[in-house]
Amino acid sequence: MAEKVMVKGTEAIAEAALRAGCRLYYGYPITPQSELTEYMARRMPEIDGTFLQAESEVAAVNMIYGAACTGKRVMTSTSSPGFSLMQEGISYIAGAELPSVFVNVVRGGPGLGDIQPAQGDYFQATKGGGHGDYKLIVYGPESLQEAVELTGKSFDVADKYRTPVLILADGMLGQMMEPVSFPDFVDEKELPDHSDWAMTGTKMERDAHRVTSFNIDPYGLEEMNKRYQARYKEIIKNEKMYEEYMLEDADVVIVAYGTIGRIAKSVAKMAREKGVKAGVFRPITLWPFPYEELAKYNDQAKLFFTVEMSAGQMIEDVKLSVNGKKPVEFYGRMGGVVPTPGEIFAKLMELV
After folding, report:
1. Does the model's pTM come out above 0.90?
2. Most exposed: 54, 200, 202, 213, by fewest CB within 10 Å?
């Protein structure tokens, strides 16, 4: 890791992707992530990569589909309305078992909404925004350094499991500036070899490769789905990530992710100054969600307190973890309003 440099969130993710071996980017500008697209337009020619601004998000996701068929590391980025437009293509990419990385810098909604930070895309990200029985690996970083590290990891796990991966950030994370250490550029010769399935041209002396999610035979399609589900079980087993903060003796478990997970740590400190033993459980993988890891606090905690920049979406996964054994309370702001530590603390003290 090099010395730290001051950088904006969207640009940090873009540079991290380049250093992870991404040389193909197709996207369409939309606030608050347009700087990521601009950065790729500037940097890709410098490292012999390919940048193309598509005519829409629908076009961009299908370019990703085609490029991913070659086995190369590919990425696109967008914000909430644009990500909605990509859902059909993402379902096709998941069905075709193609490694690819998506970035959604979430903004206020529903509809056109505004350009302020929000977390209202959690259901879409973790429950499958498109059609069919598929999943995305979803990361929710809390800082720019973590976003950089998770960007590199996203490409690695996408290749490992032949699946699309989503980095779910928000407008605050995308627009803030922080000091970040970037890893060195990967050696492209050491990237995973996908020659057993990738479409690399017909001149090679091998059988033809076909990449598709289509199977007219329902039994054949069911077998494909069984293969996907077996892979998802492996991902659940191996890839869950989470952070535990001051939970050793906590009576109150605050559950939050991304930017709010960061704010929640300040709330836990404020609560302890008032004699309330609070800690934070922060899921880093939003899918697979760390159900069992959160559930281990069911006996210890008196209260679970979920905080989100939404009307309450992750709270459903928290309730599945708690399984009715303890109360689960909620505080949220919507439409791009970021709750302050003070107002979250006030709600927590009201509850306890």
Report:
1. yes
2. 202
